[in-house]
Amino acid sequence: MKQTHVFQTEVKQLLQLMIHSLYSNKEIFLRELISNAADAADKLRFEALHDSNLLADDAALAITVTADADARTITVADNGIGMSEAEIVEHLGTIAKSGTKAFFEKLTGDAQKDAHLIGQFGVGFYSAFIVADKVTVESRRAGLPENQAVRWQSAGDGEFTVETISKPTRGTAVILHLKEDQDDLLSDWTLRRIVTTYSDHISVPIFMKKAPQYDDEGNPQPSDELETVNQAQALWTRPKNDISDEQYQEFYKHVAHDFDDALAWTHFKVEGRQDYSGLLYIPKRAPYDLYERDPKHGVKLYVKRVFIMDDAKKLMPLYLRWVRGVIDSSDLPLNVSREILQESKDLDAIRSGSVKKVLSLLEDLQKNHAEKYDTFWQTFGNALKEGIGEDFANKDKIAALCRFASTHNSDDAQNVTLADYIARMKDGQDQIYYITADSYAAAKNSPHLEIFAKKGVEVLLLTDRVDEWVVGSLSEFDGKKLTSVAKGELDLGKMADETEKAEQKQAEESGKELAQTIQAALGDKVAAVRITTRLTESPACLVAGEHDMSLNLARMLEAAGAGGQIPHSKPTLEINPEHLLIQKIAAESDERKRNDLSELVYEQALLAEGGKLDNPAAFVKRMNGLLLSLQ
Which residues are 226's β-sheet partners? Predict the structure, then answer.
């Protein structure tokens, strides 16, 4: 019985995009359908490890591409795992699992630019509607009887039908009924060119009808005999010298389901305690789920060229979740279950070695390919920073790859490495100074930087949310301690001469009574009030305790709803006795005005720090009172 189903609203939109907007990239449909067929073969290989009956008497896995000029159809068929009726409705009727909302948010309306999204969002099957006005899918899942096959059909008009059919063989056949203006695709030569261009690297053999032979009179003699048109050899098993950049790129597009080229790759073979080979890629563009903490796809694991799993967490740590490619082990047992594999020490060793290969690739890009590394950093820099807290063994390597904004530059470009900073350190400087804030402007203009600007000391400006995680995990680099300019008492060490130290000591002694007066006015809002060593222009600033959470991190946690779970440490107010406003407080005899001015100085320091006022109305009232008193 034939049943009619309605596509999700998002799929209707997607079909319209495919049908009306992407003609200029129409050849990708064949690459996507062949990739899906290859995946089906991989899945069958894996399931057959546990149930050899699934292969029955048809163990030679293959893909067949044929064209029928009379019927005006192209068929891409495989004898892979196949689909049941429930699976075909789920997989071909919805793209919700592939990030539908994010997909449409990324669309620009430019067909050329939007085409690269097809692979990223797992919607490759729908690219068939670029060239077809109707698509028929006939599939029988391995292990199901012949009479439980299923036919799926749609004209891309918002509906699809599903019916039970008989199919003598397992696997899936996708039949494209071509549009009137797509006759060029019925040419055997055109199809061969597309297959060899985009799918030559597929490890499953792709068969097409043999090219016609010509008789003595020059007449073509068609043949129904099939021949392999791709190399059908796993690319990562071939010698590097035999592989062109174009072949590497096409394999990347297959394994990553990406329309764009990769930024860089590393191809390696490791022999020793574990024998394995790998081909790992850095994409140019971020996948749509980059900042989902449970990514679905990552590096594919093969054992003796048999696909085992595609799990982002098992072969790469989360901070490298954007890496794509394959790792093929010769040592892991083929019949190992996924659960046992997840606890495998051998797999841990493979993962550790592969991580080092990726980091070495990044080091090479940073040293020898600056433009590519700039592209990488702008795309994946924040994700890489996560590794400083996640990967203790490689923390220093990751830190050396990180880039930051700093006061050395006039803009917010993140192009300063920790090695760059150390190379520019002043005589007598033994610490790497930084400040964290929620924006570049807030960091660049923070009062905490005033003494550093006066002395020409560079300060790193850390404004990414992950930076608090970075400095919380990285206490030093290359023997230099990382020090926040907004925490603890500031000690400039050898950078402060004896005269400055004497003047500071005298200021602290003479300002002790004023500090006590201001603290009395502020009550429990601050832990203490002291004379500053940081300020040259501002009246005051707030400073967190040396071992306390930074004020910026506390605000981030509160914004995330964790305010009740974090320890609240009161900041210290540092005052600049040279500032006229502080001198006015010292000279004010009216206690109420003195208290108002003290409150105002505290509130200004809080705002300059990026904090929020508990009582904005009271602040405005105090400010208005101060302004009126100037008349």
Answer: 209
Residue 476: which of 423, 433, 426 has the closest Cα? 433
User: Residue 592 contacts by C-beta under 8 Å, 6 or more apart in sequence?
Assistant: none
Q: Which of 544, 590, 588 is nearest to 566 (CA)?
A: 544
Which residues pair with residue 485 across a beta bridge? Answer: none
* Dihedral over alpha carbons 321, 327, 332, 338 (to 10 degrees): 40
Query: Distance between CA 44 and CA 169 in Å, rounded?
Result: 14
Residue type, 409: N
**Amino acid in position 537:** E
Rounded to the nearest integer, the mean pLDDT of the chain is 85
The SS3 call for residue 567 is coil
Q: Which of 500, 406, 498, 421 is nearest to 453 (CA)?
A: 406
By DSSP bridging, strand 480-484 and strand 431-436 are parallel
For position 314, what pLDDT does the model report?
77
CA-to-CA separations, 594 to 577, 588, 622, in angstroms, rounded: 15, 6, 11
Q: Which residues pair with 75 in a beta bridge?
A: 66, 175
Q: Per-residue confidence at 281, pLDDT binned at 50, 70, 90? A: very high
Low-confidence winner among 151-160, 276-285, 402-411, 429-438 (lowest mean pLDDT): 151-160
- C-alpha closest to that of 78 among 194, 191, 173, 175: 173
- Which of 598, 574, 576, 573 lies closest to 585, judged by CA? 598
Q: Model pTM?
A: 0.73
DSSP string, 453-465: HHHT---EEE-ST
What 3-state class would DSSP assign to 429?
Answer: coil
Alpha-carbon distance 577 to 584, whole Å?
10
- Residue 36 CA from chain centroid, whole number: 24
pLDDT single digits (tens) 63-99:
999 999 999 999 999 999 999 998 888 877 665 344 4
- Give SS3 for 476: strand
**Token duo for residue 511:** 């300002």
Q: Which amino acid makes up residue 344?
A: S
Residues with Cβ within 8 Å of 317's Cβ and at least 6 positions away in sequence, in order, are 351, 355, 387, 390, 391
**DSSP string over 369-391:** -HHHHHHHHHHHHHHHHTHHHH-
Residue 444 has pLDDT above 90, yes or no: yes
Cα–Cα dist 362/374, whole Å: 11
What is the rounded CA–CA span in Å between residue 152 and residue 117?
A: 25
Dig out the tokens for 170 from the structure: 């397992």
What would the DSSP string read from start to end of 548-600? SPPHHHHHHHHHTT-GGGS---PPEEEE-TTSHHHHHHHH---HHHHHHHHHH
Enter the DSSP assignment of 439.
Answer: S
Give the helix/strand (H/E) hosting 77: strand 73-78
**In Å, how far are 186, 544, 574 from 526, measured between CA atoms?**
79, 10, 10
Task: Give which of 235, 270, 428 is closest to 350, Cα–Cα.
Answer: 270
> From the centroid of its chain, how far is CA 558?
25
Task: Determine how β-strand 540-543 pairs with β-strand 572-575.
Answer: antiparallel
